[in-house]
Design a protein that fits this description.
two-stranded antiparallel sheet, alpha/beta, Nucleotidyltransferase, domain 5, five-stranded mixed β-sheet, 4 domains, Helix Hairpins
Length: 439
């Protein structure tokens, strides 16, 4: 008979739950296991069972979306829930069953080993799902953009090669005119933006000299209609997001803000978004390089506005999985590949990537210098870490970020290098002349 694994008990009266699509398995003591179906009435029966056993806290894995309904039901009934990353409860291969999983989760939780995942509460959770749904619809809509490009190429209409994006205002105007039966190249060009007419007019006229085909035009029309449907859905989601933001910011004080940054792609059509985000955060986050109002909207559902659960900025960066990982054993120390970033960490990496070629801020200069020694991936992750630190400090201190600028960063770097140079000269009994220092 296998020896039972035991741990020191840190948390009393706790249970472990393993969640599936059809059943959940509950262990109140690490030994006994009871199963329930996943219907709402069964969830209530599970809560009654836990209260009868004196359970005050439960731990369960974040399995797909199955955990959400049970999580909030138990929270409403006064049972605290610890949601954990499944990687932290992974068992040895060949020993995994639903019954053993819930027992193992209970033992780890009672020993104080498991860490709580951040779960937005109330309207913030709804906001997170809406923003993620918006991104999914944008991604699905891009499929039809690619198909429209294919249809144009089949007719040798070279608009994708001339325009930066065919789903911009100019491209869509021309495609709709073509579908309505218009073939006059000069008229189609007149539907474009003035800058396109001025700088790309001749190329657009050449691009429109295609071989029109009824079948390919039919396919183009079908994909245009589907793309329009997705755009209308995005507008509806923007309206729902606007309603939630109004509810969340109703009692918030006004915050003095600067000019809103432009959002280049897929900007939300939400009136007063800049002022609303500043009220929710209590500070203007767009003072941080690379962060605009759309970025702040995406982050608020992922991180919330309360940083008190992160005692230090290092714990926040570690939660984002932006900290460099290392492996130490005896005298050996080496860097190792870390876990992929969570959604919030990915957002910071996207912001950092947009700054990689920026010549007007210190973080961009830092990344370019690091890219020369390492590679772009490492530089972007390091830049994302700096943005996350600025984000944490802005929220915890309540003061807007102050951009030092590339010049100040380079001066600071030069002073550091000069100090190192003087230290090396002193080490080898050498002296730097005034001309060398000035140079």
């Amino acid at each position: 008979m296998a020896k039972e694994t035991t741990f020191e008990t840190v948390h009393q009266n706790v249970a472990g739950i393993d969640i599936g699509a059809e059943q959940i398995f509950v262990s109140p003591d690490g030994k006994e296991v009871v199963s329930f179906e996943t219907f709402t009435s069964s969830y209530y029966a599970c809560a009654v069972y836990l209260k009868e056993r004196g359970v005050k806290k439960v731990a369960m894995e974040a399995t797909g979306v199955y955990w959400i309904a049970l999580y909030f039901l138990l929270e409403e009934l006064g049972i605290l829930v610890c949601l954990v990353n499944p990687k932290e409860t992974k068992q040895v291969k060949g020993r995994k069953t639903d019954v053993r999983d819930c027992q193992w989760i209970q033992k780890l939780f009672s020993a104080g080993i498991l860490r709580h995942s951040f779960i937005p509460q109330g309207k913030f959770m709804e906001l997170r799902h809406l923003v993620r749904e918006r991104l999914d619809i944008i991604s699905m809509g891009s499929t039809y953009v690619n198909k429209m490009q294919k249809c144009l190429e089949l007719m040798n209409i070279k608009l994708p090669e001339v325009l930066s994006q065919i789903h911009g205002t100019s491209g869509i105007n021309m495609i709709k005119a073509i579908l309505s039966g218009n073939r006059d190249s000069n008229y189609l060009l007149s539907l474009c933006d003035e800058r396109i007419q001025k700088y790309k007019g001749e190329k657009v006229l050449k691009a429109l000299e295609g071989r029109y085909n009824d079948t390919y035009l039919f396919m183009l029309e079908q994909n245009m209609q589907l793309w329009d449907i997705h755009q209308n859905q995005i507008k509806k989601i923007d309206g729902e997001i606007s309603r939630l933001l109004d509810e969340l910011s109703v009692d918030k004080e006004e915050v003095v803000t600067g000019k809103a940054k432009a959002v280049r792609h897929h900007a939300p059509k939400i009136p007063g978004l800049h002022a609303t985000m500043a009220r929710l955060y209590g500070v203007d986050l767009t003072s941080i390089p690379g962060i605009n109002d759309y970025t702040a909207l995406r982050l608020i559902g992922e991180t919330g506005v309360d940083m008190s659960r992160f005692p230090t900025v290092k714990s926040f960066v570690n939660w984002l999985t932006l900290s460099p990982k290392s492996h130490r054993s005896g005298k050996m120390k080496k860097n190792v590949r870390g876990m992929p970033c969570n959604v919030a960490g990915q957002i910071f990496k996207q912001c950092a990537q947009s700054l990689l070629n920026s010549k007007n801020n210190a973080i961009g200069s830092f990344m370019r210098k690091l890219r020369g020694r390492k590679d772009s991936g490492i530089a972007i992750k390091a830049g994302a870490r700096k943005l996350a630190i600025a984000y944490y400090n802005t929220l915890t201190k309540g003061t807007a970020y102050v951009e030092e600028g590339t010049k100040r960063y380079e001066d600071q770097l030069q002073r550091r290098e000069m100090a190192l140079l003087k230290k090396m000269a002193k080490k080898y009994n050498m002296q730097l002349s005034e001309n060398q220092i000035a140079a």
